[in-house]
Design brief:
By secondary structure, the chain is mostly helical. The chain has one domain: Up-down Bundle (Growth Hormone, Chain: A). It is built from 19 helices and no strands. It comes from Paenibacillus rhizophilus. GO terms for molecular function: transmembrane transporter activity.
């Protein structure tokens, strides 16, 4: 039975994020194993994630446009099934080049999820609950990261299965989730008709996605995600090679970040729903996240490093995201939600193209992985400074006026 019940939507979309992030992160704990099997450099290991995120980022804007025109659920489910199939096929790859090609296709499938999900939820859920609802949906990311890290390391290092087994298992589960979402989530037909009626005005309407507030938000999410994906990709490897942590333990330690992010995201999402001016909260999280990016590699004390990871989980990307999503919704006409969120995610995911490879390249050149973390901290500080120039006010009214002006023109 199809539904627009907010609670069911939150649960299903959180489940969707769970397997999105689980499938992404089953790779990180076994990168050392794959590198030894295929004789890869650190830069080549980073390229495995970079190729995935290139296609993922490239799909964001087309997916948002298609979803707003033809139905968000249809686009979402089709892409999700493709992503599940790609995950399974990744386990069958006979070598590095074929693996890269399959990961690129998998990224295209995942690229249809973000814009439609937040387009549907932003229309179905009251504005006063946007922050907390986005945080609850995003909690699936945290669960998925932990599931991917722990599942991959446990299956490979504790159970002694080959690294490919995890890809088969998670890929099958992903296809099942896609079917469940397709069965229970419905498109609002009236909303779809309204979206189609706006097609003629689209070239001008797109201006509404490039206001000062939008652009500065895109920059901040780029800087935030750079550090996040650099850490997700390399943290298990860093713990094994630089800190001497056993492979079977890296999944648990790396999962401290997503575990801590769940209460952090819910707390700050709830807070953001109750303040008119979100800018101070966003700036606070950006600065604290940057500090943690410096603390984790710099701290020689093991306990301090662990504390840095936990605090980063509380205040980092997963806590910042729901507030920025709410901020984008407040500044965007409702019929352009899928495109706006796709543009927002595209800007952020551009960083994921560079972060894994650049971090690996620095490690190859300098012999140390710490410099990649330091660069992440610097970028997040820059993004926070630029966000100071955002204009906070009656965002919804501003978005409506922008849309009306675009149609009139």
């Amino acid at each position: 039975m199809k539904t627009k019940n907010p609670i069911i939507l939150i649960i299903l979309f959180a489940l969707g994020w769970t397997f999105m992030y689980a499938d992404r992160n089953i790779l990180s704990p076994v990168m050392k194993v794959i590198g030894e099997e295929w004789d890869l450099s650190k830069a080549e290991l980073g390229l495995m994630s970079t190729v995935f995120f290139i296609s993922y980022a490239a799909m964001q804007i087309p997916a948002g446009i298609l979803a707003d025109r033809f139905g968000r659920v249809k686009v979402l489910v089709a892409g999700y099934i493709l992503f599940g199939i790609g995950t399974i096929l990744s386990g069958f790859a006979p070598g590095f080049i074929v693996f890269l090609a399959i990961r690129a296709v998998t990224g295209l499938g995942e690229g249809t999820y973000y814009g439609p999900v937040y387009g549907i939820s932003s229309n179905a859920i009251s504005k006063k609950f946007r922050g907390i609802s986005s945080a609850l949906i995003n909690s699936g990311m945290a669960i998925g990261i932990s599931l991917g890290f722990i599942g991959s390391s446990y299956i490979t290092f504790t159970l002694g299965k080959n690294w490919q087994f995890t890809f088969y298992l998670f890929g099958i589960a992903t296809i099942i989730v896609a079917i469940v979402i397709g069965l229970f989530v419905k498109d609002d037909r009236a909303d779809v008709r309204a979206q189609k009626s706006a097609v003629q005005a689209e070239p001008v309407n797109m201006k509404a996605l490039f206001t000062r507030n939008h652009i500065l938000t895109y920059i901040l999410i780029f800087c935030s995600l750079y550090g996040f994906f650099g850490m997700l990709t390399w943290l298990p490897y860093y713990l094994q090679t630089a800190r001497g942590v056993a492979g079977s333990q890296t999944g648990i330690i790396s999962s401290l970040v997503p575990w801590a992010s769940i209460p952090g995201a819910i707390l700050f999402g709830y807070w953001s729903d109750r303040v008119k001016n979100k800018k101070p909260l966003i700036l606070l999280l950006a600065v604290l996240g940057a500090i943690c990016q410096f603390v984790v590699p710099y701290a020689e004390n093991y306990s301090l490093m662990i504390a840095g990871l936990i605090v980063y989980g509380l205040v980092g990307k997963l806590a910042l995201d729901p507030i920025l999503i709410s901020f984008v919704a407040d500044n965007t006409p409702s019929h352009m939600y899928a495109r706006a969120f796709s543009m927002f995610n595209f800007a952020g995911m551009l960083s994921s193209i560079f972060a894994p490879y650049i971090t690996g390249y620095f490690a190859d050149v300098t012999g140390k992985m710490e410099y990649g973390f330091y660069l992440s901290g610097v970028l997040l500080l820059i993004g926070g400074i630029l966000f100071l120039f955002v204009k906070e006010g009656d965002s919804t009214a501003n978005a409506s006026r922008a849309a009306q002006a675009a149609v009139v023109e």
